[in-house]
Specification:
about 800 residues, alpha+beta, Phosphorylase Kinase, domain 1, Transferase(Phosphotransferase), domain 1, hypothetical protein tt1634, 5 domains, 7-stranded mixed sheet, 6-stranded antiparallel sheet, 22 helices, elongated
């Protein structure tokens, strides 16, 4: 749970949809924030995830929110239950889900870890939830300790949260909540580096997180890309882990998917077979038949397989070097699998060819033409690790790819490419993020291509981490990539992922001309590159808005006195600044019109109308009253038929209001004039009036000191005295009335006003006194009385 900050989207006490009361912040991410809230109707706690304002209109992010909402079809106690999406009047989109009260496994990991026995219970519970989700073709893809909470701290009550939060629709985006991709990457299955994910990827992540929580130490992802890839191709080190947890982790997190449990059901069968030793509670096998839901992911879920024999289960041996080598060859699919996020987070150290080392290659002033066949590539980078093709014991597809690579090298299309290490798959990532500094990561076929990319990327203040390698790419691959980068480099942001000859491109700009130019290049990718590209046209950044630009809007719609801006920034309103308005309005229609006018004048900004809604009658008096400060007086409301107070000031039809004016001890001189302005347009002068003319404070006190209570509206039982005004609430005049006391040094008017008159007549008398300078008002105090039907 985090401390609230002034810049948070919601603050404790905020009420959403007249239902959810914000209590605290649970977490903050790059695109969203999560809050704990209480349902004011049921009293039940919920968690609310809200997209930040800049993403609430982005269709890609809205799609992800809708996907997550669709997971509400899963009804299992081990999977957090989702409710539905809502949108605030300001346009913010939020998702309501159950609040799970308890520690996350990440907190337990940081605290030193958990016993093997307890983790067997966690594994059973999580596998049970995954079996239901996978049966509905939903893959988590981000299973990690922070996404599993132990309800009430109990291992057998583990709950998977953030289930089904897919990556952004754009290549290379990280998870929608959290954005700590280095931490999430530590638990990712090896095949996820190449963008391939199925149900067995969730099982790998479960095994990796069980080991991390048991040891109380997060996995080390590696110091550089090749080390990361090498480690992902190796079995996890489970030495010293007690059985049966050791074998469970070995079979969950085998580097090759085929060596793992093939389904969550198999995991449950294995754990069941160990129940005599682990003494864990029986698993939940929901019997409810769930309707088929639309598929929420583009990933393929592994088809269900028949359960393996539960016992005995031999330990999985460490993969052979040739088999592990299949994964070492995986370059980072940053834009499709998170690698760019790893580099941005600083998880990896610089790769084989640094900017300084590459500077030895002359960088041209502009992107060069493609190198000819006669141009020799630079000497191979000796710092690059050996990624030669797998031996004959590798699987057939790897062997086929190696043959293709060799044939390509033999053609001589890369000059001395035969001397370069082989990268399979052959991958390059070039991207520019929100900071405007591009990055280039991966492999290229020649020094000329490297120099051209270096000139482009470093020319915009970016960095390159590139190696020379040969691979299964077409002859014009380098020139085609340079053409795409040239078409993207002026965009606000872009992402280019190339895997062999397959490319995915996305970008965004606020300039329509740049969008058109970029789409001319990526709409139909050049040369040997195959795939797709898209460039979004963004709204231009909001300009600074001067407070003076909003004053005419307020003045035009002010119908109940002046409207004002609360705390306007000295330098104007920025895109993230809230516009707060104070004052009074005659009704809700004017309030809506004011909100819409401010939205038009200040698009994209948050608007807070902290105005008081009155009615035309009250506003007529408000605009006629002279300028004066708030007085020291107080009105106390009660009932004519019972002694209790009415703190709310709300009265039902037929009730008899009793009103007392409290004159504070420090007021001993001057005069007080008290009137009620009702919703129907009438004014009742309670003090003074023809039957009660005395309103001098000294005479009202009659020698009394301290706070003085003067009754101005009486119970019906006291109505016999003509100086006592008593009334009941009438159904013909429902709404807001206002009791007003004007403090003056002498009589307010030269002659007595009638006991009852119209609002228009009283307003005219006030305005005439102000214009003549004879209306000497020291202070004004008022309180609203609201009459409502039963």
């Amino acid at each position: 749970m985090a401390e609230p900050k002034p810049g948070d989207i919601f603050q404790p006490g905020d009420l959403l949809n007249n239902t959810y009361r914000i209590e605290s912040v649970l977490g903050r991410g790059g695109t969203s924030e999560v809050y704990k809230a209480r349902n004011d109707i049921s009293g039940r706690f919920v968690a609310i995830k809200v997209l930040k304002s800049e993403f609430s209109g982005d269709e890609a992010f809205l799609t992800l929110m809708r996907r997550e909402e669709e997971i509400r079809e899963i009804r299992h106690d081990a999977v957090v239950r989702y409710s539905e999406n809502h949108r605030t009047p300001e346009g913010l989109v939020y998702l309501v889900m159950d609040h799970v009260d308890g520690p996350g496994l990440d907190a337990i990991l940081k605290a030193g870890g958990m016993s093997a026995e307890d983790l067997m219970q966690v594994a059973r519970r999580v596998a049970d939830g995954l079996s239901v989700a996978h049966g509905r073709r939903i893959i988590h893809r981000d299973l990690s300790p922070d996404n599993i909470i132990l309800r009430a701290g109990r291992p057998d009550q583990a709950v998977i949260i953030d289930f089904g939060i897919a990556k952004d629709a754009n290549p290379g985006a990280q998870t929608i909540v959290g954005n700590e991709f280095a931490g999430k990457y530590a638990y990712a299955a090896p095949e996820q580096l190449a963008g391939h994910t199925d149900a067995r990827s969730d099982l790998y992540a479960l095994g990796a997180l069980l080991l991390a929580v048991h040891r109380g130490k997060r996995p080390d992802p590696g110091a550089n890309p090749m080390e990361v890839l090498r480690k992902k191709g190796e079995a996890l080190d489970t030495e010293g882990v007690a059985e049966p947890l050791k074998t469970l982790i070995d079979r969950l997190a085998a580097p090759l998917p085929a060596d793992r449990f093939q389904s969550a059901e198999e995991v449950l069968d294995y754990i069941d077979a160990q129940s005599d030793r682990t003494q864990v509670a029986p698993r939940l096998r929901p019997q409810t038949v769930l309707p088929t839901a639309p598929r929420l992911s583009t990933d393929t879920v592994a088809p269900p397989t028949a359960p393996r024999a539960a016992v005995p289960v031999p330990p999985i041996p460490t993969p052979t070097p040739s088999r592990a080598g299949l994964w070492v060859g995986l370059a980072l699919l940053a834009l499709g699998g998170g690698g760019a996020g790893l580099w941005a987070a600083g998880v990896f150290s610089p790769g084989p060819v640094t900017s300084e080392e590459a500077s030895a290659v002359k960088a041209p002033d502009a992107l060069p033409p493609p190198p000819s066949d006669s141009q020799a590539a630079a000497e191979p980078d000796t710092s690059a690790p050996d990624t030669s093709a797998p031996d004959a014991s590798a699987e057939a597809d790897a062997a086929a790819k190696a043959a293709a690579l060799k044939a390509n090298a033999d053609k001589g299309t890369r000059g001395s490419a035969a001397a370069l290490p082989v990268a399979a798959p052959y991958q390059l990532i070039v991207e520019k993020g929100e900071d405007g500094r591009p990055k280039a990561i991966g492999v290229v076929p020649s020094a000329e291509v490297l120099a051209a990319l270096k000139a482009t990327v470093e020319g915009q203040g970016g960095s390159v981490t590139l190696s020379l390698a040969s691979g299964a790419i077409g002859e014009t691959w380098g020139a085609d990539v340079l053409t795409v980068v040239a078409g993207l480099q002026k965009l606000d942001r872009y992402q280019l992922t190339v895997t062999d000859n397959q490319a995915e491109v996305s970008g965004a700009t606020t300039d329509p001309a740049l969008q058109s130019a970029a789409m001319a290049v990526v709409g139909q990718l050049p040369g040997v590159l195959q795939g797709k590209g898209a460039v979004d046209l963004l709204a231009k950044p909001l300009p600074i808005l001067a407070a003076s630009d909003l004053v005419p809007v307020l003045a035009k719609l002010a119908d109940c006195g002046d409207l004002g801006l609360v705390g306007p920034p000295a330098l104007g309103y920025g895109p993230a600044d809230k516009i707060t308005v104070s004052g009074r309005l005659a009704g809700s229609q004017t309030r809506v019109a004011l909100f819409e006018a401010l939205q038009a004048a200040a698009p994209g900004r948050e608007i807070d109308l902290g105005v008081e809604l009155l009615n035309p009658a009250l506003c007529q008096i408000e605009t006629a009253l002279p300028a004066a400060h708030e007085g020291p007086f107080r009105f106390d409301f009660g009932f004519g038929d019972r002694p209790e107070a009415n703190e709310s000031g709300r009265y039902f039809v037929g009730e008899n209001p009793v009103i007392d004016l409290v004159i504070p001890a420090e007021v001993t001189t001057g005069h007080v004039s008290v009137s009620i302005v009702d919703v129907s347009g009438n004014v009742y002068h309670l003090l003074p009036n023809l039957n009660r003319p005395e309103n001098a404070v000294e005479q009202l006190r009659a020698g009394q000191t301290g706070d003085l209570r003067v009754r101005i509206a009486y119970p019906l039982s006291d109505n016999a005295d003509p100086s006592h005004v008593a009334f009941t609430v009438d159904a013909s005049a429902l709404g807001k009335s206002k009791v007003v006391v004007l403090q003056s040094p002498g009589p307010l008017f030269p002659e007595m006003r009638p006991t009852t008159e119209s609002v228009g007549g009283y307003a005219a008398a006030l305005k005439a006194g102000v214009a003549a300078g004879s209306l000497d008002v020291l202070s004004i105090t008022s309180r609203v009385l609201t009459s409502v039907a039963q």
